[in-house]
Amino acid sequence: MMSLSRIYSSISRAVARIAGRPSTFVAALSCVALWISSGPLFDFSDTWQLVINTATTIVTFLMVFLIQSTQNRDTEAIHLKLDELIRVTQGAHNRMLDLEEHEEQQLDELRERYEQLARSAREGTTGSEEDTGSPEL
User: Could you please report the per-residue DSSP string of 29-80?
Assistant: First the structure.
């Protein structure tokens, strides 16, 4: 039996694929056009307005979770791919493997080291010199 997490993941991937299609946008736009065109039939009543407000609120609420789930999965996959590139690159610092787990201050310090390395490379490279280096972690 599939776990709740797997079921949610499968459903969120499927819905994300469907939601991202142009035909889905056209369908949503058609629903709004149909709702607008039905306004005179319902005398633009409060109930008529409540229908679109409720529908869009529910869809927006659910899409927030879907988007977050998709974003989390994509971010995790990117981190793993980058970790693998760091791991197999000769001379790369293994300390870089889990930067997403570091505190903000540690990231700022590391960024400053890399920015200094970039400034040094810009100032000292004339085109014939090698411009590789390390911030000496």
Answer: HHHHHHHHHTTGGGTT-HHHHHHHHHHHHHHHHHHHHHHHHHHHHHHHHHHH
